[in-house]
């Protein structure tokens, strides 16, 4: 059914925030101190696996992808990973919306960039839109009042460096040159990115050297984040729990239910969060592909 004729639309808005802080001394070894024996480790691991099965945190197995009666638990961390409380609260606070902020979201929905409702979710979550929102003055279009300056500043604090590549001006060419010479400082992201379509390190430099001008517009450059590292055990099916050095990415989720005809909002809530954790040396952190696990924040 064409979304133009649909009465309701669900709009999911996710803010990803990675923190870059030194681990507090008392938390640096908290996992090892909490799990101080092999007996305790395996007892906790067995309990966590049982909990995952009992609460539906399961996936189909690779051997039986077409069968729902054979399942294994989704990869998870054994304990919550330390995460800065003020960074967590900042991400949550940015997502909270009042009536005026909802009007700003409605304006975004009706803007030229995403005027077709069938494209709203795809466009609003694209890397290009994320990059455009970081350009000077863009947020102020949606929060024009001087009383909203603190809100704009709070949102902007969650941004990292993002650069478009579609132009051929000196500024863009200098940024591309720096990325080729220092690829470890950047990530090259495609608008089709959903895990596995990013470029890192030498692959990033080679892609920029060989990328046709016409292809640039479908990619952005992002400043590579160096998130806080901590330790945790990963639980994976048929593997012994292993203590790893890990980093996490926080997502805050919300749901909007509205009427396209009269532009009214029936339901708008912040519906939770997810901390997705991966090995520190891993570039991609997808749970389904095996490089990341589901986690919970241990706030400090």
From TrEMBL:
Question: One cellular component GO annotation, for this chain's record?
Answer: cytosol
Any one Pfam family match given in the protein's UniProt record, by short name: GSH_synth_ATP
Keyword set, alphabetical order: Metal-binding, Nucleotide-binding, Signal
Annotated ADP binding sites: 127, 189, 222-223, 225, 249, 278
**Binding-site residues, Mg(2+) 1:** 125
Q: Which residues bind Mg(2+) 2?
A: 150
Q: What is this protein called?
A: Glutathione synthetase
| Endpoints of the signal sequence | 1-24
In Gene Ontology terms, what is one molecular function of this protein? Answer: ATP binding
